[in-house]
What we know:
This protein has one helix and two strands; from the N terminus they run E-E-H. The protein is 9% helix and 7% strand. It is elongated and about 50 Å long. The protein is low in regular secondary structure. Strands 1-2 form a two-stranded antiparallel sheet.
Amino acid sequence: MNAKTAKKPRGLRSASDEGGVAAIIPAAGSGLRMGLDLPKQFLKVEGVPLLSMTL
């Protein structure tokens, strides 16, 4: 058994271990300088949250 085939506890598995895809999307900022009441990644552009457009 090698590192790729070794059983891992469920909490330590990643999507790539199971054939899926994993991603980290850096999205930060509270939107204070823009005068927003919500984080700017949730700002809607043409009705679609900005964060959704990055996916």
